[in-house]
């Protein structure tokens, strides 16, 4: 992976993570770095799922892929927040 791919993964992960945080109601007790990590993981898994169901490459914006990624980020942030709250 090239440096531009890493930078774009971080930027997309940041965007997906922030949007995932906005979807989850209430205050989350996780930091910005965890939000980015969850966003990057959600973006990668969401892209794989979208490719698997055949909606990854469309002629316009990939709205379904974005929705999948944001939903995965919201689930990941909720799970991480609950795991950290138990400590």
Q: Mind explaining what this structure looks like?
A:
- Helix 1 packs across helix 3.
- The termini are far apart.
- With 87 residues, the chain is mainly α.
- The chain is built from 3 helices and no strands.
- It has helices spanning 3-23, 32-53, 63-85.
- It has a domain at 28-82.
- The model has no long low-confidence stretch (mean pLDDT 85).
- The longest helix is centred in the last third of the chain and has 23 residues, at 63-85.
Helix percentage: over 70%
Overall strand count:
0
Note the run of SSEs as H and E: HHH
Taking pLDDT < 50 over at least 5 consecutive residues as the criterion, the unreliable ranges are: none
**Tally of individual helices:** 3
* First-residue to last-residue Cα separation: 36 Å
Tell me, rounded to a whole number, the average pLDDT. 85
Structural class: mainly alpha
- Radius of gyration from the alpha-carbon trace, in angstroms: 13 Å
Q: Can you tell me the overall shape? A: globular
Could you describe the largest sheet, including whether it forms a barrel? Answer: none
β content, as a range?
under 5%
Summarize this, please?
The chain is mostly helical and 87 residues long. It has helices at 3-23, 32-53, 63-85.
Write the SSE topology:
Layout: H1 3-23, H2 32-53, H3 63-85
Protein traits:
globular, membrane, 87 residues, transmembrane, transmembrane helix, Transgly_assoc, mainly alpha, cell membrane
């Amino acid at each position: 992976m090239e440096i531009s791919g890493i930078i774009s993964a971080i930027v997309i992960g940041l965007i997906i993570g922030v949007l995932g945080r906005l979807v989850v109601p209430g205050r989350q007790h996780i930091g910005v770095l965890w939000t980015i990590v969850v966003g990057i993981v959600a973006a990668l898994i969401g892209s794989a799922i979208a490719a698997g169901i055949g909606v990854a490459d469309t002629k316009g914006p990939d709205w379904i892929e974005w929705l999948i990624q944001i939903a995965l980020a919201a689930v990941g942030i909720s799970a991480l927040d609950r795991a950290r709250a138990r400590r």
